[in-house]
Specification:
The protein is 29% helix and 32% strand. By secondary structure, it is of the alpha+beta class.
Length: 339
């Protein structure tokens, strides 16, 4: 769900008072070696629960979540039941789509993203609930107006159906305005020491070949609200740079990188360039000078630097690949009615 993911993501250096909980569900058909259903929840963009159709069991991902479950054992059963519900519901929707298109094969993807944000300083609450089909936004809930908004013409019918169901709308309003924020506050209280911590990264300069761009890699930082950029004479560069996304490491920290094209930089001008890392909530920045003596080549890559992403990142890549998929299959546009 391309727009879904970008519209609700907290800006890198936004104040740390805003907390969020997000649930991602993805059902697929026709994708080899990929689970038919994957669901996971995140608190402040840190995965706290995971479920897939192979095990059909919700798995806690953080120690503070396990502590929460020890005090609230009934909650985990509810989480598993919710995942199972959407697993079967989404499978039904995909099979219904196949029948409508008179197809037995092909790739189908159905998704849902929902949750809420809470500002612990202003107490402001924002909720979101969105569906996607085949990698495109489908229908979303506007809590300010209390109505569903169709982002595709084919979703107009279901929009009218849901908008006329006042009982269903009341449930959504209650969940996003009361239940979700209260649950989020509980999670933040249990995970505060972990979620509110600050860890600075190690910063390295990497280069594949002498003519390749120089990559500035920062890994091991927390939280994910950070920035990494190249400067020349103290001014941030916006040209001849290629900034990567912030990615999760296997240990719950994050990494990011930014490339600098050095093809037009004269050797005597290298000293004018440096790479700067800035972590939200931390006054000091980490500055790494562009220095050939500090650059690690292909032969010198430390395993820890290039292999920091473990199983969690593999999962994230798979999910992201599915989420941003925007292909149309067999040259026809498909129609589906979300649950």
């Amino acid at each position: 769900i391309n727009v879904v993911l970008s519209s609700q993501t907290t800006p890198p250096l936004m104040v740390l008072s805003i907390h969020s909980i997000k649930y991602f569900y993805t059902a697929s058909s026709g994708i080899p070696s990929f689970h038919e259903f994957v669901g996971f929840g995140e608190v402040d963009d840190v995965q706290m629960i995971y479920f897939d159709s192979s095990t059909s069991t919700a798995v806690p991902r953080q120690d503070w979540v396990k502590e929460f479950l020890a005090d609230n054992p009934e909650f985990w059963q509810l989480q598993t039941e919710r995942f199972m519900y959407y697993k079967h519901l989404f499978k039904y929707e995909i099979e219904t789509a196949k029948q409508r298109f008179n197809q037995t094969g092909g790739v189908y993807i159905f998704q849902k993203l929902y949750g809420c944000e809470w500002d612990d300083e202003t107490s402001e609450i924002n909720g979101f609930d969105q569906y996607g089909f085949d990698g495109e936004d489908w229908i979303s809930l506007d809590l300010k107006t209390g109505t569903w908004v169709a982002t595709k013409p084919q979703a107009v019918f279901i929009k009218h159906k849901w908008n006329n169901d006042q009982f269903r709308m009341s449930d959504f309003k209650y969940y996003h305005s009361q239940y979700c924020p209260e649950r989020l506050k509980n999670y933040v209280n249990y995970g505060r020491s972990s979620l509110m911590r600050k860890e600075l990264p190690s910063v390295s300069l990497l280069q594949k070949t002498p003519s390749s761009p120089v990559t500035c890699l920062a890994t091991g930082f927390y939280p994910h609200r950070a920035d990494l950029f190249w400067r020349k004479n103290g001014e941030e560069l916006h040209e001849d740079v290629d900034k990567g996304e912030i990615l999760p490491n296997h240990d719950g920290t994050f990494q990011m990188s930014v490339d600098l094209n050095i093809s037009s930089i004269a050797p005597e001008d290298w000293e004018k360039y440096d790479c700067v890392f800035q972590l939200s909530g931390v006054k000091d920045v980490l500055v790494t000078k562009l220095d050939k003596r500090k650059i690690l080549s292909n032969k010198g890559f430390p395993v820890a630097a290039v292999g920091v992403i473990g199983g969690l990142f593999v999962l994230a890549v798979c999910i992201t690949a599915v989420l941003i998929c925007r292909r149309k299959y067999n040259g026809e546009e498909r129609h589906i009615s979300p649950p």
